[in-house]
Amino acid sequence: MSLIFVTSSGTDIGKTVVSSLLLAQLKAKGRQVTALKPVLSGTEGVPLDETDTGRLLQAVGVPVTEASFKAATPWAFKEPLSPDMAAAREGATLCLDELTEFCVAPENQDHILVEGAGGVLVPINETATMADWMLALKARAELKVLLVVGSYLGTISHTLSAMESLRARGLGPSAIVISTSQVNPVSVEETIRVMKRFADGVPIVAIPRLNGNGSASMENGAVPDLTSCVE
């Protein structure tokens, strides 16, 4: 069993888009895979099937119900804030040990995909960040970290900063996945060429913008095989 942790250089970059595509591809190859979004904020007023969790469940063919949502996302909060802030608004505190135990609990799986919240150093509580969570998971199982980034103006600095934070902690990443932004100041190919100069051999894969439903149907370009990044 391997753990796949999907993190990013910031919020609203495309983690769920990439996670959903990867999950669907793993399922298509016959892999046993569990999709988890342990912490989710900003749920107020959002239909279950339109939440990040709902999209992940649909990618693995699990009906989106209250029960399946709670099984994948035990810590859901109304406010669209960082996990520590969103939890505090509801009188809760996230515990790193509890998050870690939850992620390693599924059995008889080839892969457990864990989608983080926000970027690499987003706080979980008063002392721990997403990076600390990844380190705790790495201590328990084989861990592959996917860093999802955009192609917008400024993404190169954001990407290299996030990658350096991961490297400093021995967290890879295993691959960088560019989720193409809506507005691109230069071609994605040019952005990749620049990133590669500083990536020290870390694979960089780009996916074109997905249709609004987050499916593998592309508006333009081919769908890359993301499974090669984790297997």
Q: For the record, what is the CATH homologous superfamily label? A: P-loop containing nucleotide triphosphate hydrolases
CATH class: Alpha Beta
Q: Please report the number of helical segments.
A: 8
Number of separate domains: 1
Proportion in helices: 25-40%
Structural class assignment: alpha/beta
- What value does the Rg take, in angstroms? 17 Å
Model description:
The protein has helices spanning 15-28, 52-59, 66-72, 83-89, 96-104, 130-138, 155-168, 188-198, and strands spanning 2-8, 33-36, 39-41, 75-77, 111-115, 142-149, 175-179, 204-207. Helix 1 packs parallel to helix 2. The strands form two sheets. A six-stranded parallel β-sheet has the order 2-5-1-6-7-8, sandwiched between helices. Strands 3-4 form a two-stranded parallel ribbon. By secondary structure, it is of the alpha/beta class. The chain has one domain: Rossmann fold (3-Layer(aba) Sandwich), CATH 3.40.50.300. It has eight helices and eight strands, in the order E-H-E-E-H-H-E-H-H-E-H-E-H-E-H-E. 34% of the residues lie in helices and 17% in strands.
